[in-house]
Design brief:
The complex is a heterodimer of chains A (117) and B (114).
Chain A: E1 5-7, E2 10-13, E3 19-24, E4 31-37, E5 44-50, E6 53-57, E7 65-68, E8 75-79, E9 88-95, E10 107-108, E11 112-116
Parallel strand pairs in A: 2-11
Antiparallel strand pairs in A: 1-3, 3-8, 4-5, 4-9, 5-6, 7-8, 9-10, 9-11
Chain B: E1 3-5, E2 10-14, E3 19-21, E4 24-26, E5 33-39, E6 46-52, E7 60-61, E8 64-69, E9 74-79, E10 88-95, E11 103-104, E12 108-113
Parallel strand pairs in B: 2-12
Antiparallel strand pairs in B: 1-4, 3-9, 5-6, 5-10, 7-8, 8-9, 10-11, 10-12
Classes of the chains: A mainly beta (117), B mainly beta (114).
């Protein structure tokens, strides 16, 4: 297992275009998270999946954002009609969904950096 | 709402010396988990150390240790014998046992001076 993989690593797009990011989590992890990180800030929670079910979404996730995790494996995060304010690093992380356990830690991917011109 | 505060945007330390990074958090819960994550430049974030709030003993991982003060809601990270490879952004994070969200601070940028 090579850890959490994200693709593409960098994406430059023009305002109004749609972009899609892909995340491949650690295979035995049933939870998958998307975070957004802007310069000088810590990661901000966007959404998370347990297996294929999207169980929680942040208010940060506007209607232009959609995430899927078909079959509970890889996940995609799509941003429609991108805006300059969407420019950020989009981080994917996965974990074992073990509540009441310190074992539930996040393993992050390297991130997908989005620049909207 | 849970908040995590890192009041030191930047810190520096001489190689081989010791440095302490501060973190405070706000919660009304008695049981939770705390973490320090490291994000090297242009590389992925990795877990440095974690602490369960119900454990009084401070966690230690090799050169990294924490000073967990539950009453003060403080969770500082001490790095001993600092190495050049310790240079990175360090994020403090909080999670409830039943929660699915990890709450992160704004980070501290650590520079290690040769």
């Amino acid at each position: 297992d090579t850890g959490v993989s994200q693709d593409p690593r960098h994406k430059i797009t023009k305002r109004g275009q749609n972009v899609t990011f892909r995340c491949d989590p650690i295979s035995e992890h049933n939870r998958l998270y998307w975070y957004r990180q802007t310069l000088g800030q810590g990661p901000e929670f966007l959404t998370y999946f347990q297996n294929e079910a999207q169980l929680e979404k942040s208010r940060l996730l506007s209607d232009r954002f959609s995430a899927e995790r078909p079959k509970g494996s890889f996940s995609t995060l799509e941003i429609q009609r991108t805006e300059q304010g969407d420019s950020a690093m989009y981080l994917c992380a996965s974990s074992l969904g073990v509540q009441h356990s310190g074992a539930n830690v996040l393993t992050f991917g390297a991130g997908s950096r989005l620049t909207v011109l | 709402a849970q908040t995590v505060t890192q009041s030191q945007p930047e810190m520096s330390v001489q190689e081989a010396e010791t440095v302490t990074l501060s973190c405070t958090y706000d919660t009304s819960e008695s049981d939770y988990y705390l973490f320090w994550y490291k994000q090297p430049p242009s590389r992925q974030m990795i877990l440095v150390i974690r602490q369960e709030a119900y454990k009084q003993q401070n966690a230690t991982e090799n050169r990294f240790s924490v000073n967990f003060q539950k009453a003060a809601k403080s969770f500082s990270l001490k790095i001993s014998d600092s190495q050049l490879g310790d240079a990175a952004m360090y994020f403090c994070a909080y999670r409830l046992p039943t929660g699915n969200q990890f709450y992160f601070g704004t980070g501290t940028s650590l520079t290690v001076i040769p």
